[in-house]
Amino acid sequence: MPETIDEQITIEKTKDPKEIPADDDLDFGRLFSDHMFMMEYESGKGWHDPQIIPYQPLEIDPGSSFCHYCQVTFEGMKAYRNEDDEIMLFRPDKNAERLNNSNRRMCMPELDPEFFIKAVKTLVDVDSDWVPSSEGTSLYIRPFIVATEKYLGLKSSDSYKFLIIASPVGSYYPEGLKPTEIKVETEYVRSVKGGTGAAKTGGNYGRSLLAQNQAAEEGFDGVLWLDGRERKYVEEVGAMNVFFRIDDTIVTPSLEGTILPGITRDSVIKILEDRGEEVEERKLEIEELAQAYRNGYLQEAFGTGTAAVIAPIGRIQWEDLNMEINDREVGPLTSEIYDILTGIQRGRIKDKYDWTDKVK
Amino acid sequence: MPETIDEQITIEKTKDPKEIPADDDLDFGRLFSDHMFMMEYESGKGWHDPQIIPYQPLEIDPGSSFCHYCQVTFEGMKAYRNEDDEIMLFRPDKNAERLNNSNRRMCMPELDPEFFIKAVKTLVDVDSDWVPSSEGTSLYIRPFIVATEKYLGLKSSDSYKFLIIASPVGSYYPEGLKPTEIKVETEYVRSVKGGTGAAKTGGNYGRSLLAQNQAAEEGFDGVLWLDGRERKYVEEVGAMNVFFRIDDTIVTPSLEGTILPGITRDSVIKILEDRGEEVEERKLEIEELAQAYRNGYLQEAFGTGTAAVIAPIGRIQWEDLNMEINDREVGPLTSEIYDILTGIQRGRIKDKYDWTDKVK
Ligand SMILES: Cc1ncc(COP(=O)(O)O)c(C=O)c1O
Ligand SMILES: Cc1ncc(COP(=O)(O)O)c(C=O)c1O
Fold it and tell me: Which residues carry this modification: N6-(pyridoxal phosphate)lysine (chains A, B) (predicted)?
């Protein structure tokens, strides 16, 4: 267990605030809010010096271990403005927990989960003007930790920086939910049992670019990853978890240590089960999917993740087999789940799960 | 093919040179020489602005993609001072080639290989006082490339920085070659077919720390990695390639895309073959190794890499099987190869391979 952090977060406000773009002009992840959170770690001393400061470049020694060995973990979460003009987070305790799991896998120091949430809330509160309000918009929050020891030997660093930055983001679907087209990746591997697939660490993402770029060149929006050992089990779609509706049962790959345990995934499972749907978390062979498709049982498919919330899948190409799903239209369950989840996140639907967490 | 770079390298000398430590006080990778090389890349513009500047912190925007997604590649090489007081590199063309291979795997821009060598030589020449001269010492050179685009979307960056830093290093074996003790890693995986094991990219290293730390806690110097798919083929030892002498034949794992194609590995194979040894590059099952051990045929084992050159292995623990090799003494072939290779690197032995490359 990480030690609790009692220190106060000091706040230094910017003297030079940026112009906040109109909701319609929001992009994803290019423009950052006026402030950032920063805290230091040293072996023996623990986490210390939590502060909110104007968003600014980091001074990184070129010998810092993270520039070479990628001892890096991160999280992704959003702050939403609800219809009562309150700012809400969605299950931030889950991000705190997952960050600590990632840290353990990467030999990095854990964080007091309550302090993590406090740091996120403090930053969002200071930059509350940056939380947009139109449907589909939010403030994307990126907590991350990097190893800073100035040493080229291969070992866990003795010092770290924990940072939180935030970027206002526009709607993922300005024209409504739109199905994506993906290909099954049969050459490249994202993750393998015994590796770091269940951790949110940068190496998993850099490693995935080549497959993604090649798929884009072939006209696809992304890839469906197969497991690294047997190359036959479905794992994730791009950087999202994946769900299929097969013969009225919902199937999603089980957590075997190779896929990221998505918070959206977990929420979708709970909502589905509550609605009385049959949900199976289990190994799913790509061949089984193809068989279901051939027999007319593959009804819907969608990805889940914080960025898109729900990403309907309209087409899956596996070698020579072109699987068009639900006539490339958004499926009924897909769109219902999207409405329920975004409804809870924005406070339109009563949150009986206690998932939303007010910033103030 | 990368475009050639015609620009001159500008040189700005430090006004505040550091004290150069005595050869006996040298550590590895903590102290860096007075200068560093830096060059920028932008899409459309290519590599530009090559410069040597005083060693200094980088200004890195916290939204830079490499802080999150580890689009990072690097190299490791050494400059040696020979007995005629000349400074020599060892096969720098191989580092240039491997860096470009890594860059392709990581969707990063390639570098003109001749320019790469010129950049390394220019830095080493400016910091030539930092190249130590005692036996076993050298200037360790770390070229690396990081993605700098300020964007949290998952895509290949549009901008990069190429840097070269250098650190004087002491002898790896101040008291002579010393065998290491390693355990066969059966839980964690370094790399898998379809992944990035053959590229020198940071994610491979951060991912390996947990196994290494656990092995250290159990009293081992490091781990012997098995393949990620079948968990039965020997791949590498720590961050080194590995060789075994079995019944008078030398066996080393073949390059199947999961292990780093080491330059020391390649050099050792050539030297051995030239001496008339039988060298087999092939898949090697850990069970075959155990069988050879049980039958008394496992004669020697050693790792190869730029840092240690040759690292004799005295003991390998595989589950319950404790394999002591050559009575935990350095084997005769191991020490001979070490003498030949370091002899060529330091100019004591005639370099009939044309591997050494004078800085001036
Ligand atoms: C690889 C990967 N899988 C799945 C997800 C979905 O996780 P979450 O629902 O917590 O955003 C993410 C993050 O968004 C991811 O990076
Ligand atoms: C994973 C890994 N394997 C092997 C090697 C050996 O390569 P080289 O002999 O080129 O130093 C290295 C680098 O030193 C490495 O990082």
Answer: 200
